Amino acid sequence: MRAHFIFSHLASSKKAQSAFEYMLLLAVVVCIVLVGLKTYVPRTTQAANIYFDKTVNGIMGDAPRNLDISGN
């Protein structure tokens, strides 16, 4: 009976250790993702702004000019 208690305790201890290791792994992955987003999002925003600035004239045309309706 005592051996069964020891083995069941070791099995639950290993499960707890595995769960703790998975939680640590998840924390590391989350940190890496957050740091990556911190550097990736501004670069993406800047690239999108440059692309938009280059293509907006092709989509919307040139800016309107003032019309001279006086006939001069």
What is the helix content? over 70%
Overall spatial form = rod-shaped
Radius of gyration: 31 Å
Structural class: mainly alpha
The number of E-state strands comes to 0
How do the SSEs run, as a string of H and E?
H
Distance between the termini: 109 Å
Strand content: under 5%
* Mean pLDDT over all positions: 78
Task: Write a brief caption for the model.
The chain is an all-alpha fold. It contains one helix and no strands.
What report would you give on this structure?
There is one protein chain. The chain contains one helix and no strands. It has 72 residues and is mostly helical. It has a domain of 31 residues.
Tell me the layout of helices and strands:
Blueprint: H1 2-60
Can you give keywords for this protein?
82% helix, 72 residues, mainly alpha
